[in-house]
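Q: Predict the assembly, please.
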Amino acid sequence: MGTFKIGKVVMNSLFKKPATLMYPVVPREWKDRTRGHIDISEPDCILCGMCSKKCPTNAITVDRTSSTWTIERMQCVQCGSCVESCPKKCLTMAPDYTTPDVEKTVDTFEIPKKEAAGGSGTAQGGELKNNIEECIYCGLCAKNCPSDALKVDRKEKVWEVDRDACVTCGVCVEKCPKKCLKIE
Amino acid sequence: MSEKKYKIQDIRNIAPVDLLSQVRDIKDDGYRFVQLCGTKKEEGYEILYSFDKEHVLLNLRLIISDEDEVESITKEYWPAFIYENEVHDLFDITFKHNALDYGGNFFKTAEPYPWK
Amino acid sequence: MGKRTIIPFGPQHPVLPEPVHLDLVIEDETVLEAIPSIGFIHRGLEKLVEKKEYTEMVYVIERICGICSFGHGWGYCAAVEGAMNIEVPDRAEYLRTIWHELGRIHSHLLWLGLLADGFGFESLFMHCWRVRETILDLFEETTGGRVIFSVCKPGGIRKDIDADTLSRMVKTLKDLKKDIKELTDVFLNDTSVKNRLCGVGVLSKADAEELCAVGPVARGSGVVQDIRLAGEGKYDDIGFEPIIETGGDSYSRCKVRIREVFQSIDLIERAAEMIPEGEISVPVKGNITGEFITRMEQPRGEAVYYAKGFDGDKASRHLERMRVRTPTNMNIPAMVKTLQGCDLADVPMLVLTIDPCISCTER
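A: Predicted assembly structure:
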């Protein structure tokens, strides 16, 4: 006779503590990898705009003239594409969710201006230049370019940059073993 | 392990007049109907039929112009009425002799034929 | 002769997870015919290929459904990788298989809860969903999200699972087996539950083949059909046999799903032992041309993914057409057939036994 088969489960749950959490009185513990919201570390940002290009929902706006980085919190789907594509690794995925609100929040961050150090990491203008006699055509710059703007051929001794695609982020300048690349 | 079955891509182009006789042969062979997909090209439409037997797919491709009418395969495979009504409601392609025709009311959309 | 009336069922109904409309023609509490109509949740997601590039489209396709989310992401990536002829590394395939089987466990537990709610057994519903929370915690620990994972991309996967987390995951699942066994014991052996399930909604083997049913609906009627045998993923290396029952009624379909939960836990354990070291993705660059059609075994049945890029000089980073055909779409004729001749009180149960996921059907 199979009646009240759930008796054992019900009896056990009478004597255990509840499975639910008294949220919001008891705060929730987040796991490390939870995709909550995007944080930016302002001193490292070079306003290259790669995050804005890769964002699938157009939630990020990068304004070079007024030096601000804006994100619409409700448009962001927390996919993490911007975190992966940032050349300076200044974006991180924090584990807590955006708090619910009655209107759509837009967060704007001021990016401090940097002096042109004549070497790496300025995106305030200027062009990528190569000292072609020093270049050994190893191709490290092209492999690391986040916008695929460089073309290097070791056999033909060809080094080309696509000016429209280059965002002067400076990753190639850092990776070059002969230090023959400059942005000025 | 030999060639994996899911990688086999068997797509055959056929003319609209041959559709019914080919489908009858396929049904006699014991194939199961899988799906019907409509694509809008620059001129006209393309319809892809898929059939399956023992986990291998067989596809038939039909290319029609804007005004063509296509024969319905609901006499051989009754479940095809769902896909034919959906394609009719989205793309405005007419299927003749449909066994269960909703007359444009299967998919309730705000404007008729939105993907035309 | 009784009088015939037409009763509308849905789109708002307490037992339905998603809105579907049925017009039931009844005569004295027996259903003679059921006429379905859908379209309440059509979002036109496939048309977004015109706006989003193929690397961004994966985030749209994942969000077609919240329950079978990983399967859609994997199917889309598999179709794009097939069209561009990309080989994915072995470690990525093993991890995708593990996540897919976790998705199957959580989907079946969700369905068991909804079935219990459908015949009024609310405490069983709550216990099933309490067990499901452990699976969702595992997902959050490894991928970052409980429902939408964003972990598949064309070319591989984005996050790795290290060996410690993997062994902890397998241990948690093995400990969970005892809890799941207690609950499924109620479904299979309790007299009051069996009265609602046995002999209700019988679909014979000939009908299942004629109506082209897929998934547990077909496997519960004796048709041997499981797309995991066709080769996508690492099921051949792990070793896998489909689960078949021959009853054809709701009880058999319930039993198929329960046995699949236990089989998935075993598959994950074997995959975690056999997983090799290595890369988790390959870089993917350039435009997409060509077309590819592939299939996945979702928890609800067979899903077809078709991706087509533009040909020749019009090749660009946009796809021309992306088509997802989901299993519920194919099971609606089978549902209509089982509804003919049943009692009015059994209609919610029969709608639930095909496991309807209407947001997948209409995208």
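Residues 116-123 of chain A have pLDDT under 50 and may be disordered. Chain A has two domains: 31-110, 128-183.
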